[in-house]
Design brief:
two-stranded antiparallel sheet; Growth Hormone, Chain: A; DUF1275; mainly alpha; membrane; globular; DUF1275 domain protein
Length: 286
């Protein structure tokens, strides 16, 4: 992953008012045309300045792995429901790559490879967009993290709205290829890479939340597997448990009356919770 660099804007000093080239004397009176409505200058209030300043700081890395671990729950939830109803993954693209290869080998046997291809393309596009967004505006800046997960939440909500209010489809037909199936797959796959990009931005590269194979390998090959204190071991074990828990939840929702729409709306609520979490997360110490 390319290194991230922040960007800063400089603003020049305010110019004194002048008349025909001569500086006017300073006055405490505010001209009528500059007076805000209701007699209050909201833009310069201490509270708004404090909030603005708070959004421009980098968040602290300490314990941020807990937020990334919660993304494993979301991944399990969405992938489980998606594979149960649509027959393709929306986060873990390894499985989709296998489905794509099988489909290209025998394209008339199933349409699953088409959905998998759509998911892969959307995921790659999302990685391109989210990666550059974080890199351009500073990866750990509070407003960047909030905006990233807010966009993810909106995309999942859009997918949920299509499934909930769009044309009724037969969720039991995994070979169905319609816009109200392909569009939600693309939307959810596009946003799912935002979690992986965030793991790079925070500095926990192993907690991408979109792959578990390397987690299993690193967990059981760890020489300190049975040590009493091993933070890396604990993170890997927690990631595995949370993804399986999410998969169980997604499967239960997919086979309930809520269907895949229930899984999508649940994921959207969890994403919103992460937005709020980043908003209140402690700032990096100077």
């Amino acid at each position: 992953m390319a290194s991230y660099t922040g960007s800063h804007e400089a603003f020049g000093p305010a110019q004194s008012p002048s008349l025909n080239g001569f500086a006017l004397p300073k006055s405490n009176a505010v001209p009528d045309e500059d007076q805000p409505l209701l007699g209050s200058r909201l833009s310069s209030s201490p509270g708004s300045k404090g909030r603005r300043r708070s959004m421009m700081v980098d968040v602290r890395r300490d314990w941020a792995d807990l937020v990334l671990l919660s993304c494993y729950l979301i991944t399990g939830l969405l992938d489980s429901a998606s594979i149960s109803i649509w027959g393709s993954f929306v986060s873990m693209q390894t499985g989709n790559s296998v489905y794509l290869g099988l489909g290209l080998a025998a394209p008339t046997e199933s349409t699953r490879w088409i959905k998998s291809g759509v998911s892969i393309i959307a995921f790659c596009l999302g990685s391109f967009v989210f990666g550059r967004f974080h890199r351009y505006f500073s990866p750990k800046r509070r407003w960047v993290l909030c905006a990233s997960f807010l966009v993810q939440m909106l995309l999942v909500s859009a997918a949920g709205a299509i499934v909930t209010f769009g044309p009724a489809g037969d969720e039991g037909k995994k070979d169905e290829i319609t816009w109200n199936v392909l569009a939600p797959i693309a939307l959810v796959a596009f946003q799912s890479c935002g979690q992986a990009v965030t793991s790079r931005a925070i500095g926990h590269n192993a907690l991408t939340s979109v792959v578990l194979t390397t987690i299993f390998c690193d967990l059981f090959s760890d020489p300190g597997l049975f040590h009493l204190r091993n933070a890396e071991r604990n993170r890997r074990a927690a990631a595995s448990v949370l993804l399986v828990a999410g998969a169980i939840s997604g499967g239960l929702l997919a086979h309930s009356r809520a269907g895949i729409a229930g899984a999508l709306w649940t994921a959207a609520v969890l994403k919103l919770g992460i937005v709020v979490t980043w908003f209140f997360w402690p700032a990096e110490m100077d």
